[in-house]
Design a protein that fits this description.
It is a single chain. The protein is globular, with a radius of gyration of 19 Å. The protein is built from four helices and 22 strands. It has 223 residues and is an alpha/beta fold. The strands form four sheets. It has a seven-stranded parallel beta sheet with strand order 6-8-11-14-17-20-22, with no helix packed on it. A six-stranded parallel beta sheet has the order 7-9-12-15-18-21, with no helix packed on it. Strands 3-2-1-4-5 form a five-stranded parallel beta sheet, with helices on both faces. The protein has two domains: 92 residues, Rossmann fold (3-Layer(aba) Sandwich); 110 residues, Hexapeptide repeat proteins (UDP N-Acetylglucosamine Acyltransferase, domain 1, 3 Solenoid), CATH 2.160.10. Helices cover 17% and strands 26% of the residues.
């Protein structure tokens, strides 16, 4: 059984804890955060340790790290913490939930997290320190680079590419053979059908409020 320290102790970590607790391969022993985010009290019965003390409390030869940091600053926070923990001698665990389906022969990137229901098809490539949330599809021959966040239900179609430090929102779709530039923000339900420029933002139109109240609407449409 691998002893795991979660890098981060906020919402992403709290989502990962029950998944790891239910996985016989792992034992979660604590959290590590930057010292300025150190919280004195423990969460989920585990101690939170600052980066300045982590090697003393959770030694690299006894513990591995699962990245549980959010997508702040276009994943730069994740990227920085990942690099610093590696430089301290920690092995970064590539966590794939047992209910995910991985069919690619390419090794998944170091420190990736793949949630239940995700499908990684043959010949897909996943870079280091990337988060793949539930029910994502990485289609055949697609490539997702390092330090990305692919939110629940997103589809990266065949031969599409998502470059580094990009955020892809819930239920977004990248069309086949399209390249999404680095440091992009792709909003929920957005459809990317042509190549994008670096640091660009792509949002789907939000649902509009209709003039009917819900009670009137249900009568008219017999809902």
């Amino acid at each position: 059984m691998k002893r795991i320290v979660l890098a981060g102790n906020a919402i992403t970590a709290r989502v990962l804890i029950p998944l790891l607790r239910g996985d016989k391969r792992y034992e979660v022993v604590g959290f590590v955060v930057d010292d300025e985010f150190l919280i004195k009290e423990s969460r989920e019965d585990f101690a939170t340790v600052g980066m300045s003390r982590v090697r003393d409390v959770y030694t690299p030869n006894q513990c591995r790290v699962v990245m549980a940091v959010g997508y702040n600053d276009l994943n730069r926070v994740r990227e920085s913490l990942f690099a610093r923990l590696k430089s301290m001698g920690y092995e970064m665990e590539t966590y794939v939930h047992p209910d995910a389906r991985v069919y690619t022969a390419h090794p998944l990137g170091e420190g990736c997290v793949v949630f239940p229901g995700a499908v990684i098809e043959p010949e897909a490539y996943l870079g280091a320190n990337t988060m793949v949330w539930s029910n994502v599809t990485l289609a055949h021959h697609s490539r997702v680079a390092e330090n990305c966040w692919i939110a629940a239900g997103a589809v990266i179609s065949g031969q599409a590419k998502v470059l580094r430090n990009t955020f892809v929102g819930v239920n977004a779709t990248v069309v086949n053979d399209v390249t999404v530039g680095e440091y992009n923000i792709v909003g929920a339900n957005a459809l990317i059908s042509k190549d994008t420029k670096p640091q660009s933002v792509h949002l789907a139109r939000s649902a509009e409020t209709v003039r009917f109240l819900a009670e009137d609407y249900k009568k008219f449409f017999r809902i």
